Amino acid sequence: EPYSDVETGVDPHKDKILGISVHRTDRLKTDLRLRHPFVRVHIIDVNTRSYVRKLNPNRSVLHYHNINDQTQDFIPSVSTEPYDFNVNRSTIPSWEDMIVIDEDYSYFTTVQQQNVIFFFEILEYFNNPQNPTDRSNAFPIAWSFLKVNLTQIRD
Q1: Predicted confidence band of residue 113 (pLDDT cuts 50, 70, 90)
Q2: 105 and 16 in contact (C-beta within 8 Å)?
Q3: How would you classify residue 10: left for phi > 0, otherwise alpha for psi between -120 and 50, otherwise beta?
Q4: pTM score, two decimals?
Q5: What are the backbone angles phi and psi of residue 111, rounded to the nearest 5°?
Q6: Which of 5, 20, 72, 113 yields a CA-CA distance of 20 to 30 A from 85?
Q7: Which residue spans within 46-137 are E strands per DSSP?
Q8: According to its record, what are the GO cellular component terms (predicted)?
Q9: Domains (range + CATH), the chain
Q10: 79, exposed or middle or buried, with CB in 10 Å at 0-12, 13-18, 19+?
């Protein structure tokens, strides 16, 4: 007879990682500078006002995004791909992007981590002809946040 995870004391979130779906936004205010907005996601510890630390500081948690974060002891911000208004011919940005954080899911949902928020920025970058993928020179368009609420966590 099989045993349930609860009966055996096994954490049902063990070996699961965190995925954050970035879908879309409503129509943004018209701005001639707004051509290819992107979303940058930050995972913040509100008590320290810093990025959440990794469980293992020497392990990369952003390798799905080809980001080498092994030299950092925290989870750095991650960006979606830009939404190009001209290519997509729509005034409502839709990224449909998955941000994958290769860290134990339970790390973000434990009682000790009730101080975690996910901070989302919609940004526009100034085009750099020498380096078209450079998004360091960006200006903010909008922002939002999501607070982890342990009573609403589902499998």
Answers
A1: low
A2: yes
A3: beta
A4: 0.79
A5: -60, -35
A6: 20
A7: 50-51, 78-79, 94-104, 116-125
A8: ciliary basal body
A9: 12-152 (2.60.40.150)
A10: buried
Residue at token pair 């779906």: 21
Element spanning 22, H or E: strand 17-24
What is the DSSP-derived secondary structure letter of residue 107?
A: H
The pLDDT of 142-149, averaged and rounded, is: 88
Residue whose pair of structure tokens reads 């018209």 in the numeric block: 30
Instruction: Count Cβ atoms below 10 Å from residue 119 Cβ, excluding itself.
Output: 16
Structure tokens at 138: 């960006």
Indicate the residue type of 28: L
Would you put residue 15 in left (φ > 0), alpha (ψ -120 to 50) or beta?
left
* Contact yes or no for 73/57 (Cβ under 8 A): yes
